[in-house]
Design brief:
Layout: E1 4-9, E2 15-20, H1 29-39, H2 43-57, E3 65-72, E4 79-86, E5 107-109, E6 114-116, E7 123-127, H3 132-140, E8 143-146, E9 154-159, H4 161-167, E10 177-183, E11 199-204, H5 209-224, E12 228-235, H6 242-256, E13 261-266, H7 267-274, H8 278-298
Parallel strand pairs: 9-10, 9-11, 11-12, 12-13
Antiparallel strand pairs: 1-2, 1-7, 3-4, 3-5, 6-7, 8-10
Helix pairs in contact: 1-2, 3-5, 7-8
């Protein structure tokens, strides 16, 4: 089957993509359901797939029509490829259609030309992908960007409220210009072209998907501007779970494609040294950051 890529981009800044087809190994019904069970992040959604899995094992479901589609959740605003099972005789759906991310009721579209935007409900047509630069501009239009009037040659960019809070105790001691970017309901400032900047430290914790996507787009564009980029990632502590860490590491691998150097500040290691208290975790992160930033800045 030929691979098809469907792109959806709303004027409000929301974007979605659905990739279907391609050269895939033929999978059995139980393999396809098992794949959904393993990918479901929400317990309620996982229970739906587990029930289907058990019914197939017990041969209560022997035949079903499996149709992939773009699932849109109007609650968490996520869109992703998902499977739906239909009765082969009457075409009725065999299970509750729940978002694999948040577990709320979702809507699945099978190769649609037009879909409603989950953020503003405007109908969005399928079309060619927008350039990373334009997507970045639209994401930044949803953010508050705080930056000094004049930038030094070396800049530290903090993406997300958590990353910004870590810098508060040490930002006066750092010999860099600091740019803070966080999602805001009423953005007041705008991102400016950093024409005189030679090096950027980009620090984030990937607290939300929006911040992760924004960080990756920023690094891509900075590299196109021939700016040297060093990324500093605060990985989550042990108590946030292996799934959370795995997701962060996926984003880290994407950033490494465009970064000259990637530094991981291990939350797990800090927890080992200072205990599992969240307060202690936040207290010691800034001190660790300062030492690394000063050392790297001196050798730039």
């Amino acid at each position: 089957m030929v691979m098809s890529v469907h792109h959806y981009q709303c004027e409000c800044g929301w974007s979605g993509q659905w990739i279907t087809g391609g050269f895939r190994r033929m999978r059995t019904l139980i393999e396809r359901v098992e794949e959904q069970l393993l990918s479901a992040k929400n317990l309620q959604a996982r229970s739906v797939w587990r029930e289907l899995y058990q019914k197939i094992l017990k041969e209560e479901i022997v035949e079903a029509e499996c149709r992939s589609g773009l699932t849109i959740c109007f609650h968490c605003k996520n869109s992703h490829e998902q499977l739906a099972l239909y009765d082969s005789d009457n075409g009725s759906v065999l299970h509750a259609l729940l978002c694999n991310t948040c577990g709320r009721e979702a809507v699945i579209y099978h190769a649609p030309e037009t879909i409603p935007c989950p953020c503003c409900y405007t109908l969005v047509n399928a079309g060619p992908a927008l350039s990373p630069e334009l997507i970045l501009q639209r994401k930044l239009a949803q953010c508050k960007v705080s930056m000094p009037t004049t930038l030094r040659e070396t800049v530290l960019i903090a993406v997300g409220g958590q990353a910004i809070s870590y810098l508060e105790p040490i930002k006066r001691d750092l010999p860099f210009s600091i740019v803070a970017i966080e999602k805001a309901k009423n953005p007041r400032d705008h991102y400016q072209c950093m024409r005189n900047v030679k090096k950027v430290f980009l620090q984030t914790s990937f607290e939300h998907d929006f911040e992760a996507e924004l960080a990756i787009l920023l690094v891509q564009q900075l590299r196109l501007m021939e700016v040297e980029v060093v990324t500093l990632i605060i990985t989550p502590p042990i108590f946030e779970g292996h799934r959370r860490l795995g997701k962060v590491m996926e984003y880290v691998k994407e950033l490494q494609k465009f970064s000259k150097e990637t530094i991981l500040l291990s939350g797990a290691a800090l927890e080992k040294d200072f205990g599992s208290s969240v307060d202690l975790y936040k207290e010691h992160i800034p001190a660790h950051l300062r030492d690394i930033l000063i050392a790297k800045g001196c050798h730039s």
